[in-house]
Amino acid sequence: MKDTKTRIIESAIEIFGEDLSAPLQKVADNAAITRRTLHRYFADRNELVAVCRQEIESSCKKAMLRAIQSSNEPLVQLESMLYAGINCGSKYALFKRLHQDENHYHNPENKNCADYDAIFKAFHKIIIQLQIQGKVNPAMSPQWIQTLHMG
Amino acid sequence: MKDTKTRIIESAIEIFGEDLSAPLQKVADNAAITRRTLHRYFADRNELVAVCRQEIESSCKKAMLRAIQSSNEPLVQLESMLYAGINCGSKYALFKRLHQDENHYHNPENKNCADYDAIFKAFHKIIIQLQIQGKVNPAMSPQWIQTLHMG
DNA sequence: AAATAATGTCACACTTTTGAGAAAATTATA
DNA sequence: TATAATTTTCTCAAAAGTGTGACATTATTT
């Protein structure tokens, strides 16, 4: 039986990835525990979301940066990023959601936001290079491909 | 001034696309009306969601099918689908969300579900063809590209 | 087996969300 | 301008969601 706290966090990431304002009961159900137990580990919703955010930042983000640094060849980089996205699974969905949330004021001073920006700048660059190399249809803008990729 | 009911539906699609359990007040705000007015057009949340679903099924889905039928050339088809996705805008996000929702029991008997399946079968086929033509890296599975595309 | 820690159950107060009635205010229409 | 339709305002009660205390139950450790 995995550590309860860990299981709660994983459940929360899964649930919040689909629905950021889902009732905590859902998270508890998903983790196969009581809501009361959940509240023993996390004082309130905000705390839980905050921990999820940290967990995501540290695991999902690292994977992305590693993928980018895995090669100098844009096509390989892109592929690595795709696989990194797969491996992150549902974390990726929440990663995106949290950085798009209206409550989240994006500010480049913040290290997390800076890293987030760095990832997508890198992504942008890769696409541009691929277009120069004629391997990607120039009609597809980096923005669109990025949106695609975030899905 | 656009028809109120229409505006409510569009607002709802926009809001629910980001957060399926967002309070109806948000939808009302987004439509620049009162919550009371919203309730005069839709008895309850479920009814509103249901109408959104219909709206999406009929507009977004049609666009996709049209895109697929626009050509016999897989690359052109893929491109058309991408643009169709862009044009559908936020509807696309909810389209996906609703068909993944846990409350939604996917059953191929249902016409909507069948159409949904048909779209992704077609998508799958296009990717396979592109891979055969050597225009897409075979390492990228159709499933992943599909997930990508859904974003 | 006894002590300890973790989880569950039930109850409670509190907040937010929901849905609807009644009447005033606004807007559209004849 | 008078009339009708629509929307807003204010109100309220019911429902759902949240967080916590007190105590019972179950697991784990010693």
Describe this structure in words.
- 2 copies of one chain form a homodimer.
- The first copy, chain A, is an all-alpha fold and 151 residues long.
- In chain A, 74% of the residues lie in helices and 0% in strands.
- Chain A is built from 8 helices and no strands.
- Chain A has helices at residues 4-18, 24-30, 35-41, 45-69, 74-88, 90-100, 111-132, 142-150.
- In chain A, helix 1 packs across helix 6 (90-100) and helix 7 (111-132) packs across helix 8 (142-150).
- The radius of gyration of chain A is 17 Å and the shape is elongated.
- Chain A starts with a helix and ends with a helix.
- The mean pLDDT of chain A is 83.
- The interface between A and B is medium-sized, with 20 and 20 residues.
- The first copy, chain A, binds a DNA duplex (30 and 30 nucleotides) through residues 4, 23-25, 33-37, 39-40, 43-45.
User: H/E series of chain A, N to C?
Assistant: HHHHHHHH
Oligomer: homodimer
What is the gyration radius of chain A calculated from CA atoms?
Answer: 17 Å
Largest interface (C-beta under 8 Å) = A-B, 20 and 20 residues
The profile of the biggest β sheet of chain A is: none
Q: Would you report the number of β strands of chain A?
A: 0
Helix content, binned percent of chain A? over 70%
Itemize the secondary structure elements and their pairings.
The structure is a homodimer of 151-residue chains.
Chain A: H1 4-18, H2 24-30, H3 35-41, H4 45-69, H5 74-88, H6 90-100, H7 111-132, H8 142-150
Helix pairs in contact in A: 1-2, 1-4, 1-6, 4-5, 4-6, 4-7, 5-7, 7-8
Chain A binds a DNA duplex (30 and 30 nucleotides) through residues 4, 23-25, 33-37, 39-40, 43-45.
